[in-house]
Structure formats: C-alpha cells, structure tokens
Amino acid sequence: MREVAERMPALYLSHGAPPLADDPLWPRELADWSAKLPRPKAILMVSAHWEEAPLALGATETVPLVHDFWGFPEHYYAVRYAAPGAPELAQSVRKLLRGAGTPVQDVPDRGLDHGAYVPLVEMFPEADIPVLQVSMPTLDPRKLLEIGRRLAPLRDEGVLIVGSGFFTHNLAALRQAAGGVPGWSAEFDDWGTRALLAQDVDALLDFENKAPAGRLAHPRTEHFAPLFVTLGASEGELDSGRSMIDGFWMGLAKRSVQFG
Questions:
Q1: Which among 23, 59, 190, 219 has most CB atoms closer than 10 A?
Q2: pLDDT (tens digit, 9 = 90+) per residue, 68-87?
Q3: Ramachandran area for residue 168 (φ above 0: left; ψ -120 to 50: alpha; else beta)
C-alpha cells in the first residue's frame, strides 16, 4: 500500500460472520480493496456489535478479542488479531466529540468484536496498524450522521473511518426462506444502491419507511446504522461513493462502499 499522501477515504463494509474466512471469494475481495487504499496511520472502527451509551472508546492497548458469537466450530474462537492500540486517536476522538457536547467514556478492557476483526483480518492481515473501536451510543440515524460529521477531520490525519455492518440483516427471515437470495434482501440492496448513487441521504435516513423492504431487511437497525457514521464523515464527497463489493452471502447483501 502507498504511504499516506492524501485524505483517507471513509468506508462502510458488510463484515460477515466468522465463516467469512472460509468463503472462496469474499476474503479476496476485501484484500483487493485494501490493497488499493492509502496506508492508514490508524483505523477507527464503528461496529454493529457494540452499542453502548454514552459513546465508549475501546481498548487503547492490545487486549484479547471479543468472540461475541455462539455455536461455531472451535477454530473460529482461536482467531487472534493483535493490532496495536491507538491512544493518540482516542485522545483526538475525545476532543472532537466532547467539544461538540457528546459525552465520551472509556472501556479500557474492551477488545475488538467480530464486526471489527473479521474484516480486518482479511484487509490488513499483518495487524500492524493501530485500531480503535468506538461504540454506537444510539441507533438514531440522524445522531449517528452527526457523530460522523464530528469525526470527519480525522480523515485528514491519516485515519481510516470504517462503519462495519451488513447491508441486509434478518437472520430469522433467512431461516424461513427456501434458500437462495430472498426477495426482501435483493429489493433492499437494489433500493439502497440507487439511493447511494443519487446521494439521497434523506431517503437513507428514513429507510424503514422509504425502502420497499426496509423493515424486513433490517428488523432491528444496528447493522445498517454504521453506514450513517460513514455518510457523516463523507459529507461533501458523497458524489465519490462507489460500491467496492456487491453480491450476496447466505442470502444477505454484502454491499460495501467507499467515499473519497
């Protein structure tokens, strides 16, 4: 990867589950994507799997991962990702958010969850870039958009801001499906792609009502919510948005996008 010589992009990616590592295609797509990025000074992760208020900063030194899943084969729990902590980034986040009136707390023993480390293992396998994970203090899209706006200056400091979710996510409905890609997943993916291309942030903010299958694709919004942090951090550059990964994995849309 190139040395940082420009503003870092902001990403929203579909992170998959631990078995992503065994998929014949997806790990290569993530690796190819990261190979095209400038090398980050640090990575700021916002994962669907950490909701905590006030907004919390995770570990700023290397601590064990959070294997926040159940019933998987043992080798998935043996995965390690010992990325350096990012105390300087944590300090910058505190300053940006507290200055805007957003309370911030520290959870120094909170390691990276699978929404953070599963894609990072594929994108930056050497684990040599400092990583800081922060919680989502709310699922309100407008409030997350504002948090993204406040964090946007970090991109000029070489920080890669990553919202990590899943473009469609309804595991209960998948279990009832007959296999293949359910209609609600395909419909939402198509609608969301067109809304992103049109830079229609208002429609995306109201996706539960505006999307043809909004409430089916996201019966709970935590996997779509990180997109709004990314959109906020990308304000003024939404015309640069492009899909870097598309298609489906076990019926769920794995669409992942880059701004800048």
A1: 59
A2: 887 888 888 999 999 999 99
A3: beta
